[in-house]
Amino acid sequence: MQRRHVVQYGAAGVGAVALMLGVGWWRVDGPGAPKPAGQRPLPLSAMDFRLTDHEGNEVGPETLIGRPTMVFFGFTYCPDVCPTTLSDISGWLEDLGNEAAQMNVVFITVDPARDTVEAMAEYVGYFHPAIRGWTGPANQIARAAEGFRASYERVPTEGGDYTMNHTASVFLFDAKGELVTMIDYHEPREFAVPKIRRALTEYVEGAT
Amino acid sequence: MSLLLLLSGTSTPVFAGSEDVVVENAWSRASIGVNRPGAAYMTVRNTGEDTVTLTGLTTPLAMMPEIHETKTNAEGVSSMAPAGEITIEPGQSVALKPGGLHAMLMKLQNPMIEGETFPLTLTFSDGGEVTVEVPILGIAARGPES
Ligand SMILES: [Cu+2]
């Protein structure tokens, strides 16, 4: 049993290195080549990834352009931050009511190994019906995170399982796919809801 | 415990402090099956005169219950790790709440079903224990009042 865990960690390590090399290549030569702004997410139109939504549809950044968008990274095995954020988002959407009806709301997993399309479908079903779940191959998840400047990391836990560290902020884009602003983890509703209203109404040209 | 009782040789309580611990507003979220870990939240209040130290958890619901702490760094990245022992000064309380300290319930033995409850025992460094019945709310619950 102990030995099997060691072997599994070994394999995960090789995978992690391969993933890092992939991300590294993409960062240097690909469309994610460094920008002076550094941490600022790209416009959706400058991102490039292919994922699958929880209903099995092929999706990508272009799916989101044309409507205001809210994006959050997480994983369904998260016991604390992700269910809290998804219920916060559900509460914001309820506050906004019809105003938010035309909004894209997407939960992108950082744990595609466990978060299959079926797992995402069941999970998002417990929250606001507007919330879509996106998953896909590990390299495409990495490209998505790179575009949003989100980070994540697999961390083994004592029991032989693992958890994921991940960016907990919610990203807000306007209908043209330009970043409006971000909502920090557990930001009070009285700050979060006006930010979403801005994404719904404002066509941002430059910085926030 | 039994050793302490033998040594003290009396029926007077051997606890120093933990008998004055009060647990309030406990709640948890329903789970999907048993593969994902659960979490429980509560306020642990020390109403006594002595400092108490919360050292661990036990529950028939989970083989590996542990106190964890979620932290979010300046870059907005959240991570979670065992919190170790938690000291509560006299008259103070510690809140286990979403995004901070929580009772992490790993290796669930049964699914956590909305509307049911489960017993969670907090163990203290003086050998005392406090057991609380934790209500299970919906997966999207935000707290005991919602
Ligand atoms: Cu935890």
Low-pLDDT runs of chain B: 1-10
List the ions, cofactors and other small molecules found in this model: copper (II) ion
Question: How many domain units of chain A?
Answer: 2
Determine and state the CATH class of the largest domain in chain A: Alpha Beta
CATH topology of chain B: Immunoglobulin-like
Question: Could you tell me the radius of gyration of chain B in angstroms?
Answer: 16 Å
Give the overall shape of chain B.
Answer: globular
Tell me which CATH architecture of chain B applies here: Sandwich
Give the helix/strand class of chain B: mainly beta
Largest β sheet strand count, sense and barrel closure of chain A = 7 strands, mixed
Please work out how many helical segments of chain A DSSP would assign.
5
Oligomer: heterodimer
> Helical segment tally of chain B?
1
The ordered string of helix (H) and strand (E) elements of chain A is HEEEHEHEHEEEEH
How far is the first residue's CA from the last residue's CA of chain A?
52 Å
Count of individual beta strands of chain A:
9
| CA gyration radius of chain A, whole angstroms | 17 Å
Strand order of the largest sheet of chain A: 2-1-5-4-3-8-9
What is the distance, rounded to the nearest whole angstrom, between the alpha carbons of the first and last residues of chain B? Answer: 39 Å
CATH homologous superfamily annotation of chain B: PCu(A)C copper chaperone
Architecture (CATH level 2) name of the largest domain in chain A: 3-Layer(aba) Sandwich
Pfam families (chain B): PCuAC (PF04314)
Keywords (chain B): Signal
Signal peptide (chain B): 1-16
Organism (chain B): Pseudooceanicola atlanticus
Describe the 3D structure:
Chain A: It holds the Pfam family SCO1-SenC. Chain A: Keywords: Copper, Disulfide bond, Membrane, Metal-binding, Transmembrane, Transmembrane helix. Chain A: This is Thioredoxin domain-containing protein. Chain A: Belongs to the SCO1/2 family. The complex is a heterodimer of chains A (about 210) and B (about 150). Chain A is an alpha+beta fold and about 210 residues long. Chain A has 2 domains: about 1-35, no CATH class; about 35-205, Glutaredoxin (3-Layer(aba) Sandwich), CATH 3.40.30. In chain A, about 35% of the residues lie in helices and about 20% in strands. Chain A is built from 5 helices and 9 strands. In chain A, the strands form 2 sheets. A 7-stranded mixed β-sheet of chain A has the order 2-1-5-4-3-8-9, with helices on both faces. In chain A, strands 6-7 form a two-stranded antiparallel sheet. In chain A, a hairpin with a 5-residue loop joins strand 8 and strand 9. Mean pLDDT of chain A is about 85; it is low at about 1-10, about 20-40 and about 205-208. Chain B is globular, with a radius of gyration of 16 Å. Chain B is built from 1 helix and 10 strands; from the N terminus they run αββββββββββ. Chain B is mainly beta. In chain B, strands 1, 2, 3, 4, 5, 6, 7, 8, 9 and 10 form a 10-stranded mixed β-sheet that branches. Classes of the chains: A alpha+beta (about 210), B mainly beta (about 150).
